[in-house]
Amino acid sequence: MSDTRHTKLLIIGSGPAGYTAGVYAARAMLNPLLVQGMEPGGQLTTTTEVENYPGFTEVQGPELMVKMEEHARAMGCEVVMDLITDLNLSDRPFRARGDSGTEYTADAVVLATGARAKYLGLPSEDKFKGFGVSACATCDGFFYRGREVVVIGGGNTAVEEALFLTNFATKVTLIHRRDSLRSEKILQDRLFKNPKIEVIWNHTVEEVLGTEAPLGVTGTRIRNVHTGEERTIACDGFFVAIGHAPASELVADQLELHHGGYVKVIAGSTRTSIEGVFAAGDLTDHIYRQAVTSAGMGCMAALDAERWLSGQE
Ligand code: FAD
Ligand code: NAP
After folding, report:
1. Whose CA is nearest to atom 26 of ligand 2?
2. How far is ligand 1, taken at its centre, from the CA of residue 50, in Å?
3. Per-domain residue ranges for the chain?
4. Residues 232-256: pLDDT tens digits?
5. Architecture of domain 123-240
6. Which CATH number is associated with domain 4-117+245-312?
7. pTM of the model
8. Which of 8, 5, 6, 22 is nearest to 112 (CA)?
9. Dihedral (Cα; 70, 76, 82, 86), 10-degree rounding
10. Catalytic hit among 126, 139, 179, 189
11. What is the per-residue pLDDT across 42-56, written as a single tens digit (0 to 9) for each?
12. Residue of the nearest CA to atom 41 in ligand 2?
């Protein structure tokens, strides 16, 4: 059954940006409605320890996000489990269609849809997705108890995933296309000290190898970027950790984007190219992409929306 809900402020996304916008907008008496999407709590629900969110020396990612949701709800933000499948920003009130059939109309919108894991784009990678190929060690690491895995990438995510996977796997091989990592030094230090981890530098992945029946990964063919020499590494799990791309499909043909799909905001604010539409968090940020910066932008978006809405009255 379809119904229509009107709200002054619709917040799309339930990561640190969305929930923080929810806290501030509720306290500004905007009665915000927040739609959670496919991943309630956002990217931090796919990790374990978070050690750089102020106020918590160490907190589990999923636990931090439950606390943020509770905080938003306690302040009066309505949190709805739905997925926005269509968003029309051409007229006001703005209109959003939920997967549930609900149509949401809103005087103002905060976009906080964050980012999603990137894949290498190899046909063999696609073939084994869910059958040995994964982009989430926290979700799938458990299946590799007593087995060997590879992790592809050289950023914070790749290093954290490699370290986490040593809790289950007998051996973790990190394969990186350059000869240095871009992850934080403290993480690199832990990586290099871990006896279960081997790093293979200057190699790219050519193919994920596996069996047909049952479908499953058995190895990967990699190539030295300097010599062109190829070799095979045996593994049961293939974890891709090469970064994230902004989830801007809903607004790609409506808002100004830049840097490969990030929503462009007016510097020093969260205002987008359409009045009344604000954007926060990883969706707009190709530089910092941290939980605390996303939360900060969520706060800014709620304050910007409040100011804009009161100017409309
Ligand atoms: P996200 O957390 O990406 O949340 C996006 C939200 O939008 C999700 O709830 C999703 O369901 C929703 N959504 C998307 N599309 C729709 C739609 N169509 N309709 C409705 N909702 C939708 N940062 C740190 O500061 N410290 C760390 O230790 C750390 N560890 C990390 C570990 C991993 C494995 C990863 C992947 C990231 C890590 N980060 C860390 C980065 C941090 O998670 C992100 O910067 C932060 O989560 C971004 O917050 P966000 O609110 O912008 O978006
Ligand atoms: P990232 O920092 O963008 O790193 C991506 C890595 O993947 C880089 O090393 C890159 O190689 C490699 N890569 C990209 N495309 C590739 C390809 N096609 N083939 C092979 N390798 C490829 O992404 P991230 O590690 O996911 O981090 C994203 C953001 O989240 C960052 O801002 C990060 O700080 C944050 N984060 C923070 C924490 C934390 O604070 N503890 C944890 C996780 C994530 P090059 O180095 O050669 O470019």
Report:
1. 243
2. 13
3. 4-117+245-312, 123-240
4. 999 999 999 999 999 999 999 999 9
5. 3-Layer(bba) Sandwich (3.50)
6. 3.50.50.60
7. 0.88
8. 22
9. -130
10. 139
11. 999 988 889 899 999
12. 156
